[in-house]
Amino acid sequence: MIIKVIQKKDNKPIVIPVLPKVREIFGQGLLYSVSTLKLNKHFKTLGEKAGIDKSTMGRLKEKVDKVGLRGVKRVRPKWM
User: Fold this and answer.
1) What are 60's strand-pairing partners?
2) What Rg do the C-alpha atoms of the chain give, in angstroms?
3) 63 CB-near residues (< 8 Å, 6+ apart)
4) pLDDT value at position 40?
5) In which residue ranges of the chain is pLDDT below 50?
6) What angle do CA 40, 4, 30 make, to 5 degrees?
7) pLDDT of residue 74
8) Which DSSP helix (H) or strand (E) runs through 9?
9) Where exactly are the structural domains of the chain?
10) Closest Cα partner for 60 from 48, 78, 68, 72?
11) Can you say whether the dihedral through the CA atoms of 26, 27, 28, 31 is positive or negative?
């Protein structure tokens, strides 16, 4: 069993072999769907636990004075 994908940028075909363990999981069916928001939170948790903390410039919403939330650009750990 393989997965065939065509890249959007280059129109090159990619062939990905499906391992027996993955085939077994697909056969059982996935338990539930996860929203993008929750999935991103899970990825951040995994990144933090994996120690992906290289400093990088990024923008996050923070409370600024009495104005409310604003996108503040600052150097932060990459997992954030």
Assistant:
1) 72
2) 19
3) 69
4) 87
5) none
6) 45
7) 85
8) none
9) 2-77
10) 72
11) positive
Burial 16-36 (b: 16+ CB within 10 A, else e): eeeeeeeeeeeeeeeeeeeee
Secondary structure (DSSP) of 18-79: PPHHHHHHHHH--S----HHHHHHHHHHHHHHHT---EEEEEEEEEETTTEEEEEEEEEETT
Residue type, 12: K
Q: CA–CA separation, 74 vs 60, rounded Å?
A: 8
Amino acid letter, 56: T
Strand partners, 72: 60
Tokens matching residue 57: 């410039």
Using CB atoms within 10 Å of the CB of residue 48, give its burial: 0 to 12 exposed, 13 to 18 middle, 19+ buried: middle
The pTM assigned to this predicted structure is 0.48
| Strand bridging mode 55-64 / 68-77 | antiparallel
